[in-house]
Amino acid sequence: MDPQELGFTPQRPVGWLAPLLLLSTGLRTLLAVLFGAYLDKRELQNALDGDWFDHSQTEDGELWLDYVADLGDGFDATYSVAYLLAQPNLQVDGASLPRGRLLLMGGDQVYPLASGDGYESRMKGPYRAALPEPPIGSPQPTLFALPGNHDWYDGLTAFIRLFARRRDGHIGGWRTEQRRSYFAVKLPADWWLFAIDEQFGAYIDDPQLGYFEQAARHVGPQDRVILMTPSPKWVKSVDKPEEYDAIDYFIRKTLDPTGASTRVLVSGDLHHYARYSHPDRELITCGGGGAYLLGTQQLPKELVVPQPDTLTRGRSVSKPYAFQSSYPDAAASKRMAWGVFRRVPTRNPGFVTMLGILHVLTMLAMAGAAAGNAGIVQRLFSIPLTVMLVLILAGSVAFAQPPKADRPKHARHWIAGLLHALAHIGLAIGGTWVWLQLPFHDWAWPGPPLVAAVLYGPVIGFLATQLTALYLLIASTVDVNVNELYAGQSIEDAKSFLRLHIATDGTLTIHPIGVDKICRKWTSDPHGAPDTAWLHPQDPLIPHRIEAPIVIR
């Protein structure tokens, strides 16, 4: 896979516990929270073309469409899904499912940060390699993309340039039509697709509401709606009831007045597949397009949406949604969690190094305090040791991400963070005792710190990483640091996407597709047809249904 021939550089999976990435992403998130309103380009999009899109007319009166989200991570996982999406047909459990005429990307098209180079190497390049040219002998498929939080970290600049800049835009064989970060599409048989951009969950801007109000004038009581959102706020509202308010407001104020029924809500952001169901509506999370796998064992068995605790006046009537299915299931997810001891150190070497340096400095401070002539209290509170202990305490508590004091589960995050810190301090005390039994600490300076860096650092770094892995495994049982437990492992397998079919009689069938094992070895095909993939898997990719097709009439 020569980058000069491909036109992009295939990327390794993001090491989410890499120190610089943790710092950079944290700063970006902080800036987005503090200055997001100043970076928000949604209101400026009011100057762009505000038309909705009509894909309701097809030769046979039916339509196939695909949904994928959270895709722009490592090449192997991203391209495995792109390759399957680009095939003319997929053989899934004995059924032939044609390629979608529409490809819907549900958010986070690039990781870790949005940029032109990032999109090129992690998303655009792999999808262009999967479908280089429009299909020969069949209509050209169309791509629509909704931004997620990672697309938003530069204020949507790179996203708009890639997906909404030109009328003749395309990504490989898929053409792009949208002019804004949100869109409305009329589908066959009285179906509509609405995709709202409500990052970072604060509100839906007035120009966007105006755009959808214009589109909704063409929606009638006989119509049914698929609503795409950047994040599954129906799940997140369990801990933060107000998370679902913007979606509920949009349904109440824009869709309900038309008399149409909103039958499906679909989102990515959480990197797994999960479905909750009510007779009136399906709530589907499908974020398996390429990013690291997120476990499912913490998902509740029932959701009440909207949450009764929300303070919004005039909210919709709360309804119970029963858990139906997840991929991977809870049992498989728990088994994967145990891989944290092996995967975190091998996939995040910088994290091991950081912990090694932290513990070396702490050990030297403790050894220096123990060897002093001052009293025990003075030695315990020597300046270097105090600084290191404060760093360990602050870092561990921050890593646990405690919510505000008025939030539920606030105390468990603080307790988990403090216990994690105490465990590292205990490890440092044990390491210091071992160090003081060795002859190195009596050597003339700079002997001790050099030996500590060369011999003690790698060993204590590995042990500290295993301690952190143990913490992540235990903390996840009380719903703390679940994301970090899986992000640190960068599990690339167990990918998922949706293939949807609207029949001529108006029946919507959703096929949730899973891929247990991605491909990691590829064979180039330089002499293939212009519309065939540049790279083919050496071992077949085997898609399967996650659950039985979901039929909505």
UniProtKB/TrEMBL annotation:
Segments passing through the bilayer: 16-39, 351-371, 383-402, 414-438, 450-474
Organism this protein belongs to: Paractinoplanes pyxinae
InterPro entries the record matches: Metallo-depent_PP-like
Top-level lineage group: Bacteria
Name of the protein: Metallophosphoesterase
Record keywords, A-Z: Membrane, Transmembrane, Transmembrane helix
